[in-house]
Design a protein that fits this description.
The protein is α/β, with parallel strands linked by helices and about 450 residues long. The chain has three domains: about 60 residues, OB fold (Dihydrolipoamide Acetyltransferase, E2P) (Beta Barrel); about 190 residues, Rossmann fold (3-Layer(aba) Sandwich); about 140 residues, Beta Barrel (OB fold (Dihydrolipoamide Acetyltransferase, E2P)). About 25% of the residues lie in helices and about 30% in strands. It contains ten helices and 23 strands. A hairpin with a 2-residue loop joins strand 8 and strand 9. It is globular, with a radius of gyration of 24 Å. The two termini are about 40 Å apart. The structure holds S-adenosyl-L-homocysteine.
Length: about 450
């Protein structure tokens, strides 16, 4: 490894060569990498060194001397400082190439040959998020909503979140103004005092229903009745208002207990012709337009004919399970969040789908049970959270492989390559992977990989 070729507070001129997986520019000074925010490959700039560590350092732009042809003019620095949209400075076609390239690099490092297809992007890659979770804090004596500056708890007040449904942005401003009007104290994390910690809003893209969740440190929320009355008047799409209790000193946003104080206990939305109910703490894909693309690709890659037994691990509210059930013999879903499993069961009934079974539990435990019961699995679908698959899950899958059946693995998420490598050890070959851009303007990448038993 190169010795640090720079020192703290040094000013120098560099040319950016690459982008990290987090979307920061990388410039090398005598082989020593410097990470720079708001910097694109090819750009020359004067930078100031902020921090030097053993293997890399951080610098900030003092003056940009040249612009990349892929730079988006007039991008707002707040989206980079907060990490809301670190790639918003990069033209969208270049973002799609960046994501494809990142996946290629992952597989290359693992010495696995695979065809990485072009990323499927969005026609309108802004305002796509159907969900917002914004902190509520006092800033200079005024209650504000916005987002934290990266690696800090300093709130940057924001009204236009760029990638959220503008109707959601508007709702947050309405709620913020009502909290101000009724002088509801914002939460203070230093003292664990105050009341409202977060506002969560979900809006059904197909149904235009809106759910507002006030995350509160106490059940006693001053003037709640007036606030709800004014809120529902100002926002006619609101079909439910929920108070979620979170009284702990924690970074976790939602607490375990919720009370519906207006309307339904859940939000309704539609995907690929099915209707889904979504409870406040259940997972629901945040980009509904691309979710339909992702699911369609996944089902196609699974090659379902109507005869297959399918496991959908990490099944959430059953969106993939129920969509696949229409093309399979039976689908078994497993999910750890109880309310999500209740949603999934209700969603099966709501859509008159009978060939599904949902179980509450950890995928790594339940798969063991299914393996012991010799469940004749043809297709295994996994869509795990970011931390990826548990080793015991992968092992169970490896020993489950029924000789008569071809197994296919579908994997989305940036841990896909890791999973593909392990699965290759069990005799599965990934042939190609299809990135789908679920999170435009951000560094996040998802890709579908189908693997077949050799
Ligand atoms: N496939 C679903 C949900 C994907 S998100 C969809 O497309 O909507 C991942 C889900 O895995 C979440 O619902 C989360 O609650 C669940 N989960 C996290 N850890 C788990 C585990 N160990 N076992 C089972 N489910 C888990």
């Amino acid at each position: 490894m190169a010795q640090p070729a720079v020192i703290k507070n040094q000013d120098l001129e560099v040319t950016v060569q690459d982008l990290t997986y987090e979307g920061m520019g990388v410039a090398k000074v005598a082989g020593f990498p410097l990470f720079i925010e708001d910097a694109l490959p090819g750009e020359k700039m004067q930078v100031h060194v902020l921090k030097v560590q053993k293997q890399y350092g951080f610098a900030k732009v003092v003056k940009r001397l040249t612009d990349s042809p892929d730079r988006v003019a007039g991008a707002d620095g707040a989206y980079i400082r907060t990490g809301i949209a670190p790639l918003s400075i990069l033209a969208y076609p270049a973002q799609l190439k960046f994501k494809q390239h990142q996946i290629e690099e992952l597989y290359k490092k693992a010495h696995l040959a695979i065809d990485v297809l072009s990323t499927i992007g969005m026609k309108h890659p802004l305002g796509y998020r159907n969900k917002a979770q914004v902190p509520v804090r006092m800033v200079n004596g005024e209650l504000q909503t916005g987002f934290y500056k990266k690696h800090s708890h300093d709130l940057v007040p924001i009204e236009d979140f760029l990638i959220q449904d503008p109707k959601i942005d508007h709702a947050i401003v309405v709620v913020r103004d009502l909290l101000r009007k009724y002088k509801v104290p914002a939460y203070d994390e230093r003292t664990n005092r105050g009341v409202v910690r977060n506002i969560m809003v979900r809006r059904g893209r197909a149904t235009h229903q809106m759910m507002i969740v006030l995350v509160s440190r106490t059940w006693q929320l001053p003037h709640l009745k007036d606030i709800v009355e004014e809120m529902t008047l100002a926002l006619p799409e609101v079909t439910s208002v929920v108070v979620n209790l979170n009284d702990k000193r924690t970074n976790v946003i939602l607490g375990r207990k919720s009370k519906t104080i207006y309307g339904q206990d859940y939000l309704l939305d539609k995907l690929l012709g099915s209707e889904f109910q979504i409870s406040p703490v259940s997972f629901y894909q945040v980009n509904p337009v691309q979710t339909e693309v992702l699911y369609t690709q996944a089902i196609e890659a699974a090659g379902l004919t109507g005869k297959e037994t399918v496991i959908d691990a990490y099944s959430g509210i059953g969106t993939i399970s129920l969509t696949m059930a229409r093309h399979a013999k039976h689908v078994y879903g497993v999910e750890v969040v109880e309310s999500a499993v209740r949603d999934a069961q209700a969603n099966a009934a709501r859509n008159h789908i009978k060939n599904v079974t949902f179980e509450v539990g950890k995928a790594e435990d339940v798969i063991q049970k299914w393996k012991d019961a010799d469940l004749p699995v043809d297709v295994l679908m996994v869509d795990p959270p970011r931390k990826g698959l548990d080793k015991s899950f992968i092992d169970a899958v490896g020993y489950m492989k029924p000789p008569k059946y071809r197994l296919r693995f579908l994997q989305s998420g940036n841990i896909g390559a890791g999973f593909a490598i392990v699965a290759a050890g069990f005799g599965y070959t990934p042939k190609q992977t299809q990135p789908v851009d679920m999170f435009p303007q951000t560094q996040h990448i998802e890709s579908i990989t189908a693997m077949t038993l050799n």
